[in-house]
Design brief:
Length: about 350
């Protein structure tokens, strides 16, 4: 097969936020833009067939402060956001995605069943959008609206982003640093993981602390998934996965979606703003996972519209260059297909069905 036939699946984007006036540029998903990273024309050009579309609730009026340390930097966790605000923000964002699908003439499908996802990726030229909650603040602590969110299409939930909420504690950002930055899940968080398992909602461990990761690993019946992060041995930032975590992911049949974020890819932690980052740096993370635990446990998780993406990729139209870089590194046809799509399909099938 040629790369032109390979429809890709991406584990994480924050495009829904960039489309809103309040949190982004307010651009249309249907118009090709020079702003942000992803829209329908750019997805088509890149042969992107689907991905998780995150809903992330930003803090109001919060200034992120990156403090320099002797060897790198550290950042405080932002304060919690209220469930009420998160719920209305999330409902608006989910409504935006459904409106996009309704206005798209079939070009965008909100997909929540495995067969529909596979058919969209393999037998259509439509884009499959799977709603994801990046941080579960919109879920009521007693889980009373979880079925409503499921009905609205949510098929993946990260219990925490990098701040505390009713379900647990997220990982603080520091370089160098390890994911062991604080406590893990609360009792409500443990209930949420069980409820997600029961309903076939994927539990995403991006932004989890080491303790939170362990608790889910001990409890979850499903493959362990981290939708967007890197490898700690390549870039020792606190958000990246240690060897122990990679081994746990592999033992569960799960995967790591390798991020395209500069600060989580560059071995120097992105301390030189002018330094170029070649795609080979991204491939170093993919190769590390493949060599350590097997190519079936690594995939893509760009963080388009949510991070500073390495300039050698640029935006969604850089995806074909990532695929070429994987081939240049020596990954064969089946391996490239696994990384670019099939590993995500396997894990989603096992989780949703
Ligand atoms: Zn994130």
């Amino acid at each position: 097969m040629t790369d032109d036939d390979l429809r890709l699946f991406d584990g994480h984007n924050d495009t829904l936020l960039d489309l809103a006036d309040e949190t982004g540029s307010g651009r249309s998903f249907f118009d090709r833009s020079d702003e942000g990273h992803l829209d329908l024309p750019r997805a088509r050009e890149a042969n992107l067939g689907g991905g998780f579309f995150a809903v992330f609730v930003p803090n109001d009026d919060y200034e992120y402060e990156r403090r320099e340390t002797e060897e790198g930097y550290e950042m405080d966790l932002p304060p919690a956001v209220s469930h009420e605000r998160a719920e209305s923000f999330t409902n608006d964002a989910l409504a935006r995605l459904h409106r996009i699908a309704a206005d798209s003439d079939g070009a965008v499908r909100v997909v929540g069943e495995y067969d529909a996802l596979e058919a969209t990726l393999l037998d259509s030229d439509a884009l499959a959008a799977v709603p994801h909650l990046e941080g579960a603040e919109a879920v009521a602590p007693d889980l009373s609206n979880l079925d409503f969110l499921y009905a609205a299409g949510v098929r993946s939930i990260g219990p925490v982003w990098s701040r505390p909420n009713a379900f647990g504690h997220g990982v603080r950002s520091e370089y160098p640093g390890t994911p062991d930055t604080g406590p893990g899940l609360t009792a409500a968080g443990r209930d949420l993981v069980r409820a997600c398992n029961d309903r076939g909602i994927l539990v995403d461990l991006a932004h989890a602390t080491a303790a939170g990761f362990e608790e889910v690993a001990d409890r979850s019946a499903d493959p362990l998934v981290v939708s967007h992060a890197g490898v700690h041995e390549v870039c020792p930032v606190s958000r990246n996965l240690t060897d122990r975590q990679l081994d746990a992911i592999a033992a569960s049949g799960g995967l790591l979606g390798v991020t395209f974020a500069r600060g989580h890819l560059r071995p120097d932690g992105d301390n030189d703003p002018d330094a170029p980052t070649p795609i080979s740096t991204l491939v170093d993370h993919v190769e590390y996972v493949a060599d350590r635990v097997g190519v079936e446990h690594v995939a893509l998780g760009s963080d388009f519209d949510g991070a500073t993406v390495i300039e050698s990729v640029g935006d969604a139209t850089g995806l074909p260059a990532v695929i070429r870089a994987l081939r240049d590194r020596g990954f064969g046809d089946d391996e490239v297909r696994a990384i670019a799509r099939d590993n995500w399909l396997r894990v989603i099938r096992e989780t949703w069905e």
